[in-house]
Fold each of these.
Amino acid sequence: MPTPLRIGVAGLGTVGASLVRLIAEKGEGYAQRAGRPLSVTAVSARDRSKDRGLDLGTQEWFDDPVELAAKADIDLFVELVGGSEGAALEAVKAALSRGLPVVTANKALLAHHGVALAKLAARKNAVVAFEAAVAGGIPIIKTLREALRGNSVSRVYGILNGTCNYMLTRMEREGLSFGECLKEAQRLGYAEADPTFDIGGFDAAHKLTVLTSLAFGSEIDLESVFVEGIESIASEDIRAAADLGYRIKLLAVAQRTESGIEQRVHPAMVPASSAIAQVDGVTNAVAVDTDLLGSILLAGPGAGGNATASAVLSDILDIASGTRIATLGLPPANLVPYRRARMRAHEGGYYIRLSVHDRVGVFASIARRMAENAISLESIVQRKLAGHEADETAPVILITHETTEAAVRRAIDAISRDGHLSGEPRMIRIEPLD
Amino acid sequence: MPTPLRIGVAGLGTVGASLVRLIAEKGEGYAQRAGRPLSVTAVSARDRSKDRGLDLGTQEWFDDPVELAAKADIDLFVELVGGSEGAALEAVKAALSRGLPVVTANKALLAHHGVALAKLAARKNAVVAFEAAVAGGIPIIKTLREALRGNSVSRVYGILNGTCNYMLTRMEREGLSFGECLKEAQRLGYAEADPTFDIGGFDAAHKLTVLTSLAFGSEIDLESVFVEGIESIASEDIRAAADLGYRIKLLAVAQRTESGIEQRVHPAMVPASSAIAQVDGVTNAVAVDTDLLGSILLAGPGAGGNATASAVLSDILDIASGTRIATLGLPPANLVPYRRARMRAHEGGYYIRLSVHDRVGVFASIARRMAENAISLESIVQRKLAGHEADETAPVILITHETTEAAVRRAIDAISRDGHLSGEPRMIRIEPLD
């Protein structure tokens, strides 16, 4: 019998506790599949006395995860502490410095320090594995880093934040306002008390940077991501999208263009008949467009203790089996610097919703501003809302053919300056999907 | 620089030619990702003089793939000959006997000889990799064999045959009959001159046996698969499905039940709002239900030279990187015998379409036969078709609550014996999806 793989787990929250329990309960099956037994021999958590429903009698306990990583008698270090700095970063560095492979679920750590950690790992002949860091239990890291290695990727995009997708789904199905929906999501535990990180698009942006690096062989660059959250999505937009044959999703997109690589997180209109439009609730999905394959889509649970533990286990079992793939898919020296494509150069169709004062000449004026910016319109709809007959303002919805972000912004600015608008203009990008 | 991985390719059809071309064109990128260069050093094909658009000046040529496998100076053998017996089987055996890793796209070979080849590979410390054998470019083999190793699978199901899915999609969208659709598919090259292997469900059954083995750690058993093709699907069924909120797909399903594992390929009604219902045309999709993850879905191109070559390349690059996963996910000695769950014990809802003579008492008689077999009905619809007012027969559509296959068959037999039917009864299983 081969010797067991001795695992140190730092962080015994939901995922860590699931992991320790699963290895205890399913150890025999895992040993068969990995070719050697797994054994959690060291753990670290803040509160030693808390009841986690686990038998933790045999493991060595560390109060400090960094000490565990630096000193425990282990073959593999699992970082489930969280946070991009502090203990998580120090512990991962300490483990890699000893040449230990590291498994982490920490997207923030990778978004901020992924390249530095990949370099450290390469120097020490170790690896960092992080399937759980993006889209929970969906094997998108393995797919990009291994299965699609023969392909050139042109775009990777997905629904990477369950909170936002849950909220958009509820707004659509129940006709709730953004505010009502947020309260509900907070009550159900799908949104944090301070929801900014999720609904502002920042969580998705962190995850996107990792996918971008794997898809394009480039260094991770969090600062360059264009981020727009779902806060300004109104019920009217969701209804209008449905009427037009679209659904609204918070998409994270990395796309190769002539001027570089776009990284963008924003609400997007996707065709209602597309596969990604069917992804509802807290489910995540990632699609990859490549030269050889065309497009593939992966969908599944993006969060949850067991789903995340499943991804951590996948990494552990790979390492136990002897699999060694470079942390970011390439030797760090072969990663190319990230070349940013500016958002102003983004090309696509746009949905624009204007609240206009209902008077003679408004339409002509709007149409002229569009034409001045070389924007051709696919449709223009003015609709009085029921019960608003007596109102002096009217919503106007424009759908453009493919144009540039810069042109759309100039046109909207010009229309605003013309003084026809009674409220803030809204713009939602249309993501072209086959 | 590490030494190149010397590859022998037997079979230079669409996939083989794509593979050789890609390795020539993208070799540098592949070398970075795999950590060593790839080099096709030996090839075999029937016709040496055929123009394949490839520069084949430097490779050693073999007329016989078995000789290539047995004698060429290579580190890896790629089998793209096809067929479950003869040269493909002998060549793979010859390569494994030398301890060479083998990459194949050959579903029939695996369905018939997968366990024997896994055993031979294990004895020789080699592996057989076969991502391309199921669902083309979708990484379902890697997902089951590696990414989901921490999970227990309860069901794996999918759309594994592009010909059938194309035809069902066209029948639905264009209102074509099965016969019209088949002619069109043959004209477009989506169906063979003899289409039995595809439309009869046998191609999907071959692929399913491989997924079953990986999902449940069991031996491959092709004989036990219940197979029903799409030949008897009529336009009326597709219309009725749409009215009831379903779509009809040819599904391949392996499912753990109390009495064993069901392996079944048959047309199935799936909820129109489900992700798998959106999979149209020649696209394939596979979903996996597990204990930790809930459900994940993978969708993408199921065939085509480049998509299949992408999967073959993924296997080659894994082997070049040193990845070694047991052929069927477990050491062959640990595979359990396949324990068949009989189709008569299958539980689910059923759609039943009867053509009845339109006379007094028919409904009562049908309802009684259902009740006698303890089948409760969710709905019963009788509809006169437009233009059929003068006809003496009427279609009756029944949707049952969950019941057993045996009960449904008994009820239909009894109704047939009662003499009320003017045509063959039709039955389509409803696949429960979340």
Amino acid sequence: MRTPAQNGELALLLEVASTPKPGNVDRHRDLDDLRFEHFLAGAVGARDGLEMAATDSAIGPAFERAIEGMAAQEGDNTQFGALLLLVPLVRATRNDLSRSAVESVVEQTTVDDAAAFYRAFEHVDVFVPDPPADMAPLDVRRGSDAIPALEARELTLVDVMDRSVPGDDVAREWITGFERSFAAADRLETKSGPLPDRAAAVFLSLLADRPDTLVANRRDETTAREVSQRAAALVDRNAIATDRDAVETFATELVDRGINPGTTADITAAGLFIALERDTVEI
Amino acid sequence: MRTPAQNGELALLLEVASTPKPGNVDRHRDLDDLRFEHFLAGAVGARDGLEMAATDSAIGPAFERAIEGMAAQEGDNTQFGALLLLVPLVRATRNDLSRSAVESVVEQTTVDDAAAFYRAFEHVDVFVPDPPADMAPLDVRRGSDAIPALEARELTLVDVMDRSVPGDDVAREWITGFERSFAAADRLETKSGPLPDRAAAVFLSLLADRPDTLVANRRDETTAREVSQRAAALVDRNAIATDRDAVETFATELVDRGINPGTTADITAAGLFIALERDTVEI
């Protein structure tokens, strides 16, 4: 029987091992400067923060610790978004792991949690788009320099997430009761076969559902929509079962074009965690 | 900066991610009933035992805990031998991680440590050959039923290892001051490129040096020698750099024939740990 922190770490490892996961690092693909082993080290490093999330520690410091540990490898940012989902989910296991339990966790976050979230950006280089003008003092790239503005406006961590929606589908999970994370877990449970294969199929289905917000922010919305529509076409004809080569080709094409649907991978990791915790998937 | 327990877990993950690793599960190959994800879960589960090894816990109970955690996945035995090397190595980091430090660790093991080692076999199905007749009461497959015989003969854990040599090259590490584990670390440090690629090259060189004892025990010595000679031929012509296809073909052939040089993989993991601890390899 694994602990929630162990399941959190294992979810990160299973996510990166799942293949084909178009555009992302997976068991069969590296990016130029972000390799499979960076994700392995990132997951190992994140565990202490996940252990904190399972205890009485506040959510913000647990997240900051997870990011600091994750970033102790040369690939820099490997699992920032995934940990932003896993930390409240791990905490929610202290009751039952339900959507209402994790909603309650995020609703109880404080201004101090938000400050720790901002400090986390000092440990790692995360891609974020320019904020609107009135939010410039709260640009996460300012790190702890933004904390006074945060305190002046009395923004808690869930308030910060609320202001990142629409545009960031990791933040959207925080204000929708982790809707897509739980949907991903449900899908993992209804599929058969080895868990990484199921996770790859769920990744593709999530990508088909909604354009990936990291792609939209790094590239543009047109590209994000194109990628989502192509994933939907593959899902519609059940390509993973009937034409796996087409999915592999799509995966390699996105890597070659430098298009990385990282938000979709984050939600896949969250879904893996929920399914592991429910003990409804075997490994 | 990773802790010794984190480096121990990471060494297990990097070992299984290294490819091509002829005959074994690697980033690109699964066996029929032992898949990549089982090794991921095995590494996550082993961490608590590695944490114990880094503290005041006795070596035997730390090993038993590591095995119990490792075995909490459907592949059953994934990293038994590797953990038998990692646990004393993790303990040795409390001084400097040298051959004499780890020799001192194993020399201090007790009959109670040996009893815990026997109990570990109750958590997992490890392949071991039949012992000689006078050692039958101490057959590890008897698990804790063998403990009275162990106590009657006042055998410590290093005594048990001593009686497994020759024939088991994991046990041999215990009585040679971890000779090949440190040699593996030295080789990792002199190579260049991503760490998993280096580890695959070191694995092949270790296999070339000596026939794998797991292959000898599971199959026969002739097969073990043949595999080692073929590895040596590949190393002699620097095939990893000049004819990688030949190494990949050898890797797949051994998987197809069900020949798994697991002892060589165990020593590779130990070498990875030592190199990570010395901080002479980057990840």
